[in-house]
Design a protein that fits this description.
single chain, alpha/beta, Glutaconate Coenzyme A-transferase, 7-stranded parallel sheet, two-stranded antiparallel ribbon, 9 strands
Amino acid sequence: MADLDIAQYLRPGDTVLIGQAAAEPPALVEKFIEAAHAIGGLTAFCGYTLSDAWADVSPGQPNIKAYAAHGALRKLSAKGLVDIVPCHYREIEDLITTGHIRVDAVLIQVAPADTDGYYSLGATVDYAAVAAEQARVVLVEVNANMPRTSSSRSLHLPRDLCTFLAISAPSSRSLHLPRDLCTGPASRPRSPRPGR
């Protein structure tokens, strides 16, 4: 991973969708932010961010769009460095497929490929899968610690993609959820609804 020159996959003006939460690829994010200082007009579309590398963002290097200022984006938003896209989370896939949110490249963290070459999206199965179908470039960071999940969505070696690069990186980061996230109302058994 250390010798990857991410700049060879990016073009000035590209919009790069970054996987969110457990799908955020920490090593690729660092390289992307470094590259944004040299490549003009890059835009990151982000969701929930966990990487400390976002603290190194300079105004416009890259431009940042997000549906909310979660995680590391909170501080950047307070500085006026995040453009909030006014939409509901459930609309993001449609905005990507219709081109209202343009995606040229996707950076995402995945579980290792299975024997058929499919990469599980792990704990974050969301709009990034649709974005990968639209993108010119998909760069994945393979994390051996990412759980494989059963989902109809996964990434496979490309049929239509120009570039699909899988990079194995040892994960020095484990996902630690706040305790209240694990013990809040969503983790409690639901009562059946009347009539069901």
